[in-house]
Write a structure and sequence with these properties.
8-stranded mixed β-sheet, Maf protein, 17 helices, Rossmann fold, 2 domains, 6-stranded mixed β-sheet
Length: 477
């Protein structure tokens, strides 16, 4: 059979799960192994049941016992078996065995693959709903280097059987997508949810690597996860690689600075540094166990009514160049951001914001959808370990400074504001530079786009050079 792995599907509309598995099985070139830990062999069974699996499946296995699993794949330094590290070891080990045991000379048209997952489903007490890693290592031409897709999922269903079924469906979609939709990564993301209720499972991290995806920027795929509603928040590090939020936030102190960063300015950096100074002066601070996040909301990215990917990448490149970890979220309201953080940590949470943002928080219109209104939102926002580090604003005409002591909220919110302020929930950032406070991203952006001069010294060191060299934000030189 000729090798044909992309192009129009031979099925009308969305192919059924059985049709997807059967198309893989009937391609005599595709051959590989399945290694599944936790949640049963839910993916492999689809390929067995549809027929023709003998030409596709070299081996399936599960190593549920930890000692047995360690004997095969090696021990994990952190003793976590549901982890990206374990998944990668599984993929590499099983591919090594496949190459060792299947003679390439006799199978010179074979396209090798290994699918693996390591999963924990909901516990008996139903306190932890479960999560898992799944991935595929594969090739689309014989003897080519391997490419890889790995993803992390969080279960939302409340019984183990339903979670197992959802995992099985997504696994089939992943394998099918790897072979038949790898040339369209964004479409592949959407197809992962074929035949699955969006409320059943969440994808909060995905990474594409290898020669097939050399032109793919995983940060854009992270953005796509949030845009499509597959998850509420994603993160990527200074190196541009996607990070698992649950792992990065777990039991950490968190300092989060929200902004548009279009582009990042000296004001943003000053807010970050002064906030870090305040935090480190707290008697029980723990800098070594603290994560600083520069957060951009989805609404902040939709400056023209829709997401401009180039504009997003421009912002991302600048923040990464400054060594920052970036979060993209769908949390327009601050209380939702705080609630999200509290899922992973009981330690300190510090939100860094300007005066105007704090005033907006006390606007009741944002909480009409809550049965408890603003009081419900504030119960979630200002819990025990959360504080606001407040950066003042300056009136460029009068040089008047507005901080927590003289800002004005709606009259009926005044007592509520005073309650939180005088209970130490709002901390003023001091020692600010009044000239830097007059810098606004929108003004700098307009200057860059119009070719004006003088904006360079308003940005952090190295940022203006990067904008010019890479022609970011419409810079023409």
């Amino acid at each position: 059979m000729p090798i044909q792995l992309t192009g129009d599907q031979p099925f009308e509309n969305t192919p059924s799960l059985e049709a997807k598995a059967l198309r893989i099985n009937l391609n005599t070139n595709i051959y590989g192994t399945f290694a599944e830990i936790g949640a049963g062999q839910e993916v492999a069974r689809h390929f067995f049941r549809c027929g023709g699996a003998s030409g596709t499946i070299a081996k399936t296995m599960s190593a549920y016992d930890k000692d047995f699993s360690d004997a095969i794949y090696g021990k994990e330094a952190d003793s976590r078996y549901v982890s990206q590290s374990r998944l990668l070891k599984m993929l590499d080990w099983e591919m090594g065995l496949l190459e060792k045991r299947i003679d390439r000379k006799k199978n010179n048209e074979r396209l090798f693959f290994t699918y693996a997952n390591t999963v924990t489903t909901i516990d008996f007490a139903k306190r932890f709903k479960g999560h898992g890693w799944m991935g595929i290592k594969f090739q689309t031409h014989p003897n080519d280097p391997y490419s890889m897709i790995t993803t992390h999922v969080r279960f939302r269903e409340n019984d183990a059987k339903s979670q197992q079924l959802s995992l099985g469906v997504m696994g089939v979609n992943l394998i099918y997508g790897a072979f038949y939709q790898h040339d369209r990564p964004k479409k592949l993301l959407q197809y992962l949810f074929d035949h699955i209720d969006r409320d059943a499972i969440e994808i909060d991290t995905i990474n594409f690597s290898g020669p097939l995806f050399s032109n793919v920027d995983n940060r854009l795929l992270s953005l796509e996860l949030v845009r499509l509603g597959m998850t509420d928040a994603v993160m990527f590090g200074p190196d541009g690689n996607n990070l698992l939020p649950a792992r990065e936030l777990y039991k950490k102190n968190i300092i989060a600075l929200r902004g548009s960063f279009r582009p990042v300015t000296k004001v943003n950096v000053d807010m970050y540094r002064k906030s870090l100074d305040i935090y480190e002066r707290e008697s029980d601070s723990d800098p070594d166990n603290t994560l600083v996040l520069f957060e951009i909301t989805l609404s902040n990215l939709m400056t023209t009514g829709e997401i401009d990917e180039q504009d997003f990448m421009d912002r991302a490149r600048l923040l990464c160049s400054l060594g920052q970890t970036v979060m993209i979220s769908n949390f327009k309201e601050y209380y939702r951001l705080a609630e999200y953080f509290s899922e992973y940590t009981k330690k300190k949470i510090r939100l860094v914001m300007g005066v105007n943002n704090l005033i907006e928080i006390f606007n009741e219109k944002y909480y009409r959808h809550l049965s408890g209104g603003i009081l419900e939102a504030f119960g979630k926002l200002f819990f025990k370990n959360l504080k606001v580090y407040l950066y003042p604003i300056i009136d460029p005409k009068t040089d008047k400074i507005t901080d927590s002591n003289n800002l004005r909220v709606q009259a009926r919110m005044k007592e509520l504001y005073n309650f939180f302020k005088y209970n130490g929930k709002v901390i003023d950032i001091l020692d600010y530079n009044t000239e830097d406070m007059k810098i606004f991203s929108r003004d700098i952006l307009a200057q860059i786009e119009s070719g004006q001069k003088g904006w360079e010294d308003k940005l952090p060191e190295g940022v203006s050079k990067l904008i010019k060299n890479q022609k970011l934000f419409g810079y023409k030189g």
